[in-house]
Every structure is written in C-alpha cells, then in structure tokens.
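Notes to self after the Tuesday call (sharing in case useful).
The group wants a holo model before anyone commits to mutagenesis around the pocket. I volunteered. Ligand is MGD. Logging inputs and output together so the record is complete.
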Amino acid sequence: MPESREVRSYCRTCLAACGVLLELRDDRVVKVKGDPDHPLSRGYTCPKGRAMGELQHHPQRLDEPRLRRAGELEPTPWVELLGDLTRKIAALRDRCGDSAVGIYIGTGGGYDSLAMYTGNALGAALGTRSRYSAMTIDTPCLPLVSGLMTGAPVPNPVLDLDHTRMTLILASNPMVSHGHTTAFPDPTTMLRRLAGEGRELWVVDPRRTATARMATRHLAPRPASDHALLAFLVRELLGPGGGADREYLAAHALDLEQLEIAVAAWDLERTCEATGLGETDLRALLASIRRHGQLAVLTGTGASMQRNANVIEWLAWALQIVTNSFERPGGMWFHPGASKRLECFDSFPEPVFRDLPGPASRPEISGHLRETVGDLPCAAMVDEIEAGNLRALLVLGGNPLTAFPSASRVDSALRRLDVLAVADIVQTRLTEIATHVLPCCAPLERFDFPGYMDSSQVDVISQIAVPVFEPRGSRRPLWWILAKIGEAMGVEILPGAVAADDASEAALVRTYLSAGRLEYDALVKEPVTAVVIDGVRDRTRGWVHDKLPQGRWRIAPSPLVAQLQAISAGSAASPEPLRLISGRQLRQMNSALRETAGPGERLDTAMIHLHARDAAAAGIDDGARMRVTSATGSLEGRAKIDPALRQGTVWVPHGWPQLNVSELTSDQLGVDPLTGMVEQSGLAVRVRSVPGTRG
Ligand SMILES: Nc1nc2c(c(=O)[nH]1)N[C@H]1C(S)=C(S)[C@@H](COP(=O)(O)OP(=O)(O)OC[C@H]3O[C@@H](n4cnc5c(=O)[nH]c(N)nc54)[C@H](O)[C@@H]3O)O[C@H]1N2
Ligand SMILES: Nc1nc2c(c(=O)[nH]1)N[C@H]1C(S)=C(S)[C@@H](COP(=O)(O)OP(=O)(O)OC[C@H]3O[C@@H](n4cnc5c(=O)[nH]c(N)nc54)[C@H](O)[C@@H]3O)O[C@H]1N2
Ligand code: SF4
Ligand SMILES: [Mo]
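Result:
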C-alpha cells in the first residue's frame, strides 16, 4: 500500500471557498474532507467540494489543445494552435475592427483568479468593446443600484453574523447555493445562528426551500411580486407608525421625499393583492422590523433574475438605509476587500445615469453598464454575431449554450463565428462546437486567491491555494494562454511586461496581491489556506459612508423611481398565469459536469417541477412527460409533483443541456432596458401533458 499524505487547499467551485483536506496517494486524490482549521468553513464541505478529486482526475478532462480542421477537431501542438488562433484574430481585427474579437468570462473563469485578471487585461489591451461576463445574466441590478445610490458600482453588502438580529432573505437559497452575494460556508450553522437566541430569520420564497425550512418564518408570495412587499415596508416605516430613523435620514439621505412618493401606492390592501400574502403575515413582518429597529436584507437570483430586479434591489437598499442599518452592527456591512483595499480608493463621484447607446445591434439597451463596469449585456451577443459585429469569441470558463437566453439562437450563432476559442477543463457541448479548444489547469493545478469572491466573505480573510499537482498532458494555466495571445497581438498583459514563458505563477500572484492585504509569505510558507485578517472588518466599518458624495445616499434614483412608477401603474394579470421560477441543485455548479459521468446530480433529477393542483388542472401525472411553453420557447421533460412549490409556480433547475431552461427565456422579450438583464425568473409559462408517453 503506497503512503498517503494530506495537503490543505480550498474549493474553487462556489463563493464559499471552503477549506479542504486532500488525502493523496500515488498522485491521486483519494479523499476530500472539510478543513476543521479553516476560519470560516470550519470543516464544512458540500458534495461538490468533496468531488474535487473526481473533477481533477475526470476521464473527460481536456488534456490536449485541439484545432478544427476540415470540420473535425484534431489534437494540435500549442505553438501551432496559438499561431492559427492569433493569425485569425489579427486578420479579423484588421478587416473588421477591434470589437470584432470578443471575450466572455464565465463563472469557471471568474474563480480562476489569475485568468480573471489577465482576461480583463487582454480585453482592455485589445481595445475591444465586445467584453461580456456572466454578471450580466446573473446580477447586473447590483452594480446599477449601487452606482446610482452611491456613485460607485463596487460596494457589496454582506451579512454581519455576529450582530444581525433580524435577517430577511429574499429569493435566495443558500442551503443549496451557498450564497449569491454573501458566501455561506456551512449554511446550516450560519442560518441556525441567524434564527436562534431571539434573532429572527424571515425567508421570502415561493418555494419552501431548505433555507425556508430553517427560517423563523417563511412567506411564499407570488413570484415577481417582491417589489410590492419591499415598497410596502418602506412606506410603512416612513409613515405614521414609524420605524424609520429620521435623524439619520436627514443627515445621510438625499431625495427622501421622492422615495415617499414612489412607494405611496403600496398600502396593505394593494400589497396583499399583488403578493398573495395575508394581512397578518405582512403586519407581523413589519412589526418584527420595528421591534428590532434594524435589519439585513439579503437578495438572491430569484430577485435579480425577475423583471423587477432593479426596483427590488433598490428598495432592499432603501429599507436598510431608512432603518439606518448599513454599516452599523445589526445591519449589513460593506466588504472592503482582501485582495484589494477598497477603503483606500478615491471618494465616489456624483451618481449619474449614463444613458448611452448600448451595443450597435441593440440600441434599445442602455450602455450604462458598459461605461461603468465595462460589460456588454450577454442578451445582445447573438444579435452582435448576426449583425457581423462580433466574429471571434474567446470563452473563458463559461457555457453560453445553457447560460444565455434563447438557447437555440445561441447555438446557431456560435457556430457561425469565424473563431470560437473555448478555454475549459472538461469536454462539454461547447468545446465540441469550438474552433479552438484550450485545455486549462484546474483548481488543484494552480495558485489561487479569492480575487473575485473575497468581497462576499463574512469576514476579511487572507486565503491562498498553491498547486497540488503538476498539470498533466498539455494543459496550461489560462493566464499563460491569454498572455501568449496578447504577445502575438503585440500587447503586454502581464505585469512588468514579463514574457509568458518567463513568468512564474507565484510571482504573478505576489504582484497582483501587492495592492491588497493578503499575507502571501505567511500563507504560502505555512500549511494553512486561510486566516481572518484581524480587526479589518471593524476598523473599516463605515468606509462607504465616508466615500458617499456629500456623505449622502441617493435614496430615490430617478431611473429606478420611473421603473417603479411603471409597475405601480400596471394591474395584475387576471387570471394570474403560471410562472417559471429559477433554481439550483446541490451537486452541480450551473452546467458544470452535467454531461459527464461521475460526481454530480443524476440526469433523472432534471425534471419540471410543479404543484399538484397545477398538474391536475393540466392532466399531468407525476413522472409523465410534459411540455412547458413560454412566450418564446418550449421545453419537454418529465413532470415532478413538488409539494414545496407555491401553487402557480413551475421550477426547472438551471444548467442542464438535456433540459435546457434557457429554451424558455428570451434575448428580445422582457430584456431590461437599463441593464440588458434577461427575465429568467417569474416569466409566464403554460404547461400541458404530452399524450401517450409515460416516465
Ligand atoms: N449547488 C449550487 N450552488 C450554486 C450554483 C449552482 O448551480 N449549484 N450556482 C452559483 C451561482 S452562479 C449563483 S449566481 C448562486 C445563486 O444563488 P441563489 O440566488 O441563492 O440561487 P438559488 O439557489 O437558485 O435561489 C434562488 C431562490 O429564489 C427563489 N425565487 C424564484 N423566483 C422568486 C421570486 O419571484 N421571489 C422570491 N422571493 N423568490 C424567488 C427560488 O425559489 C430559489 O429558491 O448560486 C451559486 N451556487
Ligand atoms: N435561464 C437561466 N439562465 C441562467 C441562469 C438561470 O438560473 N436560468 N443562471 C445564470 C447565472 S447565475 C450564471 S452565473 C450563468 C452561468 O454562466 P456560465 O458561467 O457561462 O456557465 P457555467 O455553466 O457556469 O459554465 C462554467 C464553465 O466553466 C468550466 N470550468 C469549471 N472550472 C473551470 C476552471 O477552473 N477553469 C476553466 N477554464 N473552466 C472551468 C465548466 O466546465 C463550465 O463549462 O448562467 C445564467 N443563466
Ligand atoms: S459550498 Fe462551495 S466552496 Fe464549499 S465545498 Fe461546496 S462548492 Fe466548494
Ligand atoms: Mo451566477
């Protein structure tokens, strides 16, 4: 029996960044368990983390670069592959301009910290406007709202586990997702804390999720009605019954009157009607907020993906400002970063909405986010390809085939590209239609620090992972691939203008971290992956207040007030249609490993969930084949009667190519004009049985 050894690392699959202990034997991971010494996850892991070894050694890992020749993908040495790729890109840039070459950074790219830095640097150096990221099909409402209320799209509110006494989780399921904007390593312990010892945890979700089951109280409203609930709460707190901190508002908020006018329509009766919630529930929630004085409001993708996303995020912030909750113990705090020091940045500029034209093929979408965060909306990509504006695309750890709306259009548009270069760690349907396949180093083959996700942690932590394995076959670090592309294009993207082949990964990490507070030497030397950086959270508390222009929140930004006005003027559809709501599954991260054998959810969990009465009304039996149809698309699959669902909702897990929920979403209909966000939750659908088929 060969000797085994144990090494520490951390998981790079989701925001939680849990510490892990890997048992290695014969250069293979034979066991993964939670690292009890990790300051935040404290020994916790989920099934995805425990499958890190299976992912590392997966039979469908990409080992060799492949180039499409005469229709077939053929193994090709790096020199030749990169030569072909960069010649084609250069020719397209010459012929069609810089923006003909685009970059899409997906979640797999986002969790590879060096790829994220170099990918952004390459996009900037190539001068392309065709820069896309998964943010625009996930949560563009957050940078929009933050930008309009503070002047900067950066601040991310995070839960304060030590002090929060009243928490409202709206449209998020951290028991499964481990968090959307606040990370939840060990969600059971964290939620128990939030709901215990006189604290209150309210969960608002049309589905009785595992998170809802942990709550002191669960409200199951109609989908896409959260704006009403929040507007009602803000209205009442500002009203005669009180609850708002008037003195704080006088000193720290601008445009309070506009806020009061904007929410005026949402009285108890109208809110009950819109949300389908009872008067007692709404009164009880309001009373709890008044009792505690302060609260934390955590939103998730059930909010950011619905048509009223911007208004919901704004009112969630407004509710916390009205109660003087932000940056005070008891409410949420703004993370100052770990790999960067956000509190040292300049003061925020005056908030302005830059209503500039968006992508050329989609002039109706505002160019605001392109100007502030640099991204074009993913919803515009297919039109950009069809208009001939985008001809080559580098996909860095993403999968537009399942992630983007109008799935069938995406598939044919991507096949039309002159160049589709896909950087991934495993073979997927996307790599199979690529022109260039770029096999990358997986988490255990590289250095990492939580660059993109450090501002979502519940404390300020210093965390670094070192490579555990040499990359097998011809896998390369994604930063190296991007730097080589840059070199061939004549642009430098590595710091210090070092050549890709001369650069050391450790030195790069050290350079990128020099502006932050991560303790590189201590962490790399010691067999530790993470430590809390003592005192930073408390020392920096208030940094956003300090940077607000004139020290005040813009509490009623006019583009958001206008959106709420438009909603308030509308009336609810009668009868209320069935609505599709979004959701995730525990054993998978979006589309990753949906098609491969081994770890992950079984294919038979890819089902269309519906309420027993909705199923009965459509004559659909449990397990029978059925069809769900939206205004623009349709999807066939097996039915699952789900007692956790509110009547009137249909739930399809996101990420399955075999049951692609993005067949139902649209890149045209219901696209938000301010952000380009797609309606991915709460859209109206119909269901019917597919006769003559069972199981
Ligand atoms: N296991 C696992 N973890 C993941 C992922 C994964 O695929 N699998 N994906 C990761 C990614 S990329 C992200 S962005 C995060 C997302 O993290 P979360 O936002 O927590 O995502 P979900 O778990 O889908 O939770 C969304 C919840 O919103 C509810 N909902 C839907 N519509 C409405 C509505 O109109 N109103 C209200 N109040 N609720 C609604 C749904 O029922 C669902 O429970 O998860 C991350 N973590
Ligand atoms: N209809 C609908 N659409 C949605 C959603 C929804 O709920 N409903 N959710 C939205 C959300 S929240 C998001 S974030 C997007 C997701 O959008 P994407 O990020 O585009 O999609 P993923 O499926 O996460 O693709 C990640 C890819 O990265 C690869 N990968 C994993 N690890 C690594 C690595 O270390 N390096 C590299 N190079 N690659 C790696 C995986 O194999 C996978 O192919 O989809 C969005 N679209
Ligand atoms: S919760 Fe996220 S970070 Fe933790 S083990 Fe699971 S996938 Fe990995
Ligand atoms: Mo996401």
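Two things stood out.
The pocket of MGD (ligand 2) is lined by residues 106-109, 112, 134, 137-138, 301, 396-400, 402-403, 423-426, 428, 440, 442-443, 478, 582, 589-592, 654-655, 661-662, 665, 680 (CB under 6 Å).
The first helix runs from residue 47 to 50.
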